[in-house]
Amino acid sequence: MTGTPFRLRPGLRVLARDVDAVQVGQDPRWAVVLDSLTPAEVATWARVDEATDLTALPAAAQHAGADPARVRELVGALHAAGLVRPDPPRARLVRGPTAADAAAWSLLRADAAGEDVVRSRADAVVGVVGLGPTGAGTARLLAAAGVGTLLLDDDGTVRSPDVAGGAHRWSDVGAPRPTALRRVLRDVAPDVRVDGDAEPDVVVVVEPDAADPARGALLTASGVPHLSVVVRAADALVGPFVRPGTADPCLRCLDLHRADADTAWPRVLAGTTAGRDDASRRGAPRPGEVGVLAAACAALASAQVLALLAGTVPLLCGTTAEIALPDVVPRLRPWTPHPDCGCAAPPAAGTATVRTGGTAGTSGTAGTVAAATTGTTTPGPARTRHAGPGVGV
Fold this sequence. Notes:
alpha/beta
C-alpha cells in the first residue's frame, strides 16, 4: 500500500468497544472487531476516520507510543477484510444529493466503486407506467437518484387524492399527470430528461387491483425487464421483477399458479381488468391510494430498479413483496416459473447469478413503454474477528 493513500470505505466509523478493542463499522454484514489492543493502539485507532490515510497510520502510531508493526498488521487485516480502498480519482467523486448513495454502494460492491454506480445512472432510461401517487413517487425517487431519462406514461389528470404521498402538488390538480410530474421532477433533478425516443432499460408498471396480462406479455415478448406494482385499497404487491430470457417467473406464471390454487382466478382477473378499462372509457374517477402505502411501494420499487441498474440481481426477481396496512411491513412470497408458461430460459452455460446483500464488497408508450465481507477475518497476530449478528441493531 506504500505510495497510494488508502482509507476506510465511506461510511465506516471506528467505535470504542472495550478497553482493549475497537469496532470498525456497525452493519453486521461487514463490521469487524480489532481486539487485544494496547491502550496506545486503542488511542491510535480512536483517531481514525474516513479522512485518515491508513498508509501513514503506523508512523503516527509510533509517535503515540504504539508498535508500528502491529498497527501495520491490523491495517493489512482491514484491507483483507475489504474495508479499505484507495482514493478514487477526483473526477469520479460524487457530491450533492447522491453522495450518500455513492458511499452506500461503495460498501455494497466488492470493488468499492460506488461512485461509478451512481454516475452510470445518468445513461439509464427507465419507464414508469401509471403516475398516481405510487408511480409519481417512484419517478421522483429515481430522478433524485440520478437516473438520466424517465419515460412517463399515463393518460389521466391529477386529482385531489393524487396529492397523497407528496409526489403530486395541490397546484397541479386538473393538469395531465405526465405534465404535472415533469414540473416536479425538474425541481428535484434539473438535469433529468423526460420522455423521448430512447428504448427503456427497465419499466415499472403501476396498476390498480391486478396486473394486466396483456401488458406483461408484451413487455416479456419485447425483452424489456419490468417490475409490476399492484396497488389495492388496503395493500399492495411489489414484484415480481421480470428479466425476460432468464429463469425469472413472469406475470403469466403467477396467474397460472393462482389459477392452480383457485380455478375462479382467470374469471376474477378478467373481470378486474375489463372493469378497469370500462371505467377508464367512461371517465370514471380512478381509485385513490393511501399515502403511506404509496410511499412504501415507491421506495421499494425504486430500490429494485437501482439494484438492477447497478448490475446486481434484484431481490424481487421471482418474489413478490406483499405490503399491507396498517403496518406497511413487506412480507416476501417466492414464486417459481410455471411449467405451462414456457417463458423461462435456462441461464447461459458458465454463468451464475448473485443476489445483493451480504457482499462488502397499453396506452401512450405501448410495449417497451411505447405501449464488507460477511465474516472474513485474518487469523493470527492481527487479532480481528467479525462483529457478529447483533451489531448495529
